[in-house]
Specification:
Keywords: ATP-binding, Lipoprotein, Nucleotide-binding, Transport. By secondary structure, the protein is α/β, with parallel strands linked by helices. It has helices at 49-56, 79-89, 105-115, 120-133, 149-161, 179-196, 207-210, and strands at 7-18, 21-33, 38-42, 64-69, 72-73, 90-93, 167-171, 199-203, 215-220, 223-226.
């Protein structure tokens, strides 16, 4: 018996209202991702990329359509159920790291695990192991203010992976970095996501990086198209 897709969006519609005007940002967007698949999302600015990722990550609700995770319809879950599912199943990586300035690199990666009620000793070991995979063992006790841009983003990716999510959603994860640093961070991201057999949807403007993923889709006119 075939396993259901890890994640799917079916005919997603999202409309924003401004006065008497209605802007249909998403107009029947659909995608299915299988276990371990890494998919590039290319979308010009202002076409609804972030909205799509927020809906996929259960941060926003669609006006129509269905969201399915591991065969389960999660479209109409309560806020509490959505929050619990995000905590357990979904990891987010943004263009800007959003690290907590008062916590060390290690503590930033420990935090989501503690929220998930993982014992402190286990959470610290998991965090140290993740940071080691990103080549940051020697920086784990440093505050974000003492880290480079690339190091901060690698810590942010480690934090997103801390609870071993099945799904990774990334919104321009290297878009704020220079070319050399971007390549290094992206190499780390792909390596760790593939090792974890996670499923990932990664938005990027960088077509060279996009071509390194399993397939590429483009958001145009509110719909998703294969490239």
């Amino acid at each position: 018996m075939n396993e259901p897709p890890v994640f799917s969006l079916s005919n997603i519609v999202k409309i924003y209202e401004s006065g008497d005007e209605k802007l249909r940002v998403l107009d029947g967007a659909s995608i299915t991702l299988q276990e371990g698949e890494i998919v590039a999302l290319i979308a010009p600015s202002g076409t609804g990329k972030s909205t799509l990722l927020h809906i996929a990550g259960l941060l926003e609700r669609p006006d129509a359509g269905q969201i399915t995770i591991a065969g389960r319809d999660v479209t109409r879950l309560s806020d509490a159920e959505r929050s619990a599912l995000r905590q357990d199943e979904i990891g987010f990586v943004y263009q800007f790291h959003h690290l907590l300035a008062e916590f060390t690199a290690l503590e930033n990666v420990v935090l989501p695990q503690r929220i998930g009620r993982i014992p402190a000793s286990i959470a610290r070991k998991n965090a140290a192991d993740l940071l080691a995979q990103f080549g940051l063992s020697h920086r784990q006790d440093h505050l974000p203010g003492r880290l480079s841009g690339g190091e901060k983003q690698r810590v942010a990716i480690a934090r997103a992976l801390a609870n071993h999510p099945k799904i990774i959603l990334a919104d321009e994860p290297t878009g704020n970095l220079d070319g050399k640093t971007s390549d290094l961070v992206f190499d780390n991201l792909l390596e760790v996501v593939r090792k974890a057999r996670a499923t990932a949807l990664i938005a990027t403007h960088n077509e060279v990086l996009a071509q390194r993923m399993d397939r590429v889709i483009i958001l145009r006119d509110g719909k998703l198209h294969a490239v």
